[in-house]
Design goal:
By secondary structure, this protein is mostly beta strands. It has two helices and five strands. The radius of gyration is 16 Å and the shape is elongated.
Length: about 80
């Protein structure tokens, strides 16, 4: 089962999410930023971060483009890896 939780809810419910979930099924944290759109073009940008555990993870910038009235991923740009 997959459960989506807002970051604000995590901050309220768990003081240290990594120690809380050590004895449970926990696939990590997946975070998305808001989508920033350029007003004059059909491009946008957002950031995603995935944390496998407290110390390991990675992040990408995702460039999106609107073509044929649909938003599509144009490029993935590596931001960081830990």
């Amino acid at each position: 089962d997959l459960k989506l939780v807002l970051e604000s809810e995590i901050d309220k419910k768990y003081t240290n999410i990594w120690s809380t979930f050590k004895n449970h099924k926990f696939a990590g944290l997946l975070k998305f930023s808001r989508i920033y759109l350029l007003e004059t073009t059909n491009f946008g940008l957002l950031q995603t971060e995935y944390y496998l555990d407290e110390w390991d993870g990675y992040s990408f910038f995702i460039v999106i483009e609107k073509t044929d009235k649909k938003w599509r991923v144009k490029r993935l740009l590596k931001n960081w890896v830990s």
